[in-house]
Amino acid sequence: MGLSTHVLDTMHGTPAAGMAVMLLATDAAEPRCLKQFVLNQDGRNPDGLLLDQTNLTRGTYRLVFDVAGYFKARGVALPEPNFLNKVSLDFGVADPAQHYHVPLLVSPWSYSTYRGS
Fold first, then answer.
1. 64-74 pLDDT, tens per residue?
2. What is the mean pLDDT of residues 94-111?
3. What is the DSSP string of 20-43?
4. What is the pTM assigned to this prediction?
5. How far is residue 116 CA from its own chain's centroid?
6. Using only C-alpha atoms, what is the Rg of the chain?
7. How many domains does the chain have?
């Protein structure tokens, strides 16, 4: 089990390869960075799980996706300021024995997420 993410670029119909992502723990007074990574060709963390079952604990977390940086790198002309810059998803883990998958579907103008499997 553990925590994973997957990002799909709905503008181009591809995985969001090259997007920078940060994972933070938010259950303390100040958020604490647990991991920073760049998505692989499949739009996933190149190291697999973000947190394995041993390191995933009950609490609150935040994933921050650098949406504007990704689309600019793809050559998409974005207005200044960008409509979406960084997308932050705050979520809770109630049962660390379960798998938590946090997918993101994103374009320069919209995003959607859900708890996946």
1. 999 999 999 99
2. 97
3. EEEEEE-SSSS-EEEEEEE--TTS
4. 0.96
5. 13
6. 14
7. 1
Rounded distance between C-alpha atoms, residue 97 and residue 106, angstroms: 29
Residue 79's domain comprises 2-113
Residue 74 maps to which CATH number?
Answer: 2.60.40.180
The whole-number pLDDT of residue 1 equals: 86
Instruction: Answer yes or no: are the C-beta atoms of 103 and 4 closer than 8 Å.
Output: no
CA–CA gap between residue 29 and residue 87 (Å, rounded): 21
The tokens for 84 are 């979406």
CB 16 within 8 A of CB 40: no
d(CA 113, CA 103): 6
- Is 90 exceeded by the pLDDT of residue 18? yes
* Token output for 13: 């119909």
Residue 53 pLDDT class (50, 70, 90 cuts): very high
The residue written with tokens 């994972």 in the block is 23
